Amino acid sequence: MTIRVLLADDHEFYRSGFRSALETQPDLECVADVGDGLAAVREIARLRPDVAVLDVRMPRMDGLAAAESVLSSGSGCKIVLLTTYDEDGYVYRALQAGASGFCLKSMPTDELLGAIRIAARGDALIDPSVTRRLVTRFSAGLAPASASATRPPAALDRLTPREREILLEIARGRSNAEIATHLFVGEQTVKTHVSHVLTKLGLRDRIQAVIYAYENALLPRSP
């Protein structure tokens, strides 16, 4: 099945180059490319793409505001945000809005295309360098003010001890392969546990699992 993609970036050179890369992929189709956030919101409503790739900084409406508008409308379109700036505030706002990806423009093209495919199948991806730094900042106690829970939520009682362990590993920013190595289990086993964790906690993807863990103070923070 072909994944229908909309691109929004105010830099025409980057936008045209990314569109050219998309057009070389047999499973990806660029249905439109626009230069600002308002146009992106309008065209997403009109064309109903599977995935929209939005630059964070755009005129008239930035990519974060556009993502919030689209996702709050109940649109089935998945959002992947692109930026040259890996500021933590951007990342956290994107994740809270429900974005399916946050990637730096410096990522290799094949990885950016992979992020689109990941979003289309209902999973999520953050640039690994951003994930590591964000997790480190959370661990250091620099999470947003909303992360003030002092008592673990009752939903955690639904998890088995192994599933809770998996949740903590996700919160530390580890991939499935890294979790499998750390816990001496198969990667498919980890995938199964991750699926159970998300279902039991009512979470959409592993990015929401990271937010859940830190907002509920499930990991100790460094002094």
Strand order of the largest sheet: 2-1-3-4-5-6
What is the averaged pLDDT score? 84
How many domains comprise the coordinates?
2
Write down the CATH class of the largest domain.
Alpha Beta
| Oligomer description | single chain
Describe what you observe in this structure.
- The structure is a single chain.
- The protein has 223 residues and is α/β, with parallel strands linked by helices.
- The protein folds into two domains: 3-126, 3-Layer(aba) Sandwich (Rossmann fold); 138-215, 3-Layer(aba) Sandwich (Rossmann fold), CATH 3.40.50.2300.
- It is built from ten helices and six strands, in the order βαβαβαβαβαβααααα.
- The protein has a six-stranded parallel sheet, sandwiched between helices.
- Strand 5 (101-104), helix 5 (109-120) and strand 6 form a beta-alpha-beta unit.
- Helix 2 (37-47) runs parallel beside helix 3, helix 7 (161-171) crosses helix 9 and helix 8 packs across helix 9.
- The longest helix is centred in the last third of the chain and has 15 residues, at 187-201.
- The radius of gyration is 18 Å and the shape is globular.
- Mean pLDDT is 84; it is low at 142-150.
Give the secondary structure arrangement, pairings included:
Blueprint: E1 3-8, H1 12-23, E2 28-34, H2 37-47, E3 51-55, H3 63-72, E4 78-83, H4 88-97, E5 101-104, H5 109-120, E6 125-126, H6 128-139, H7 161-171, H8 176-183, H9 187-201, H10 206-215
Parallel strand pairs: 1-2, 1-3, 3-4, 4-5, 5-6
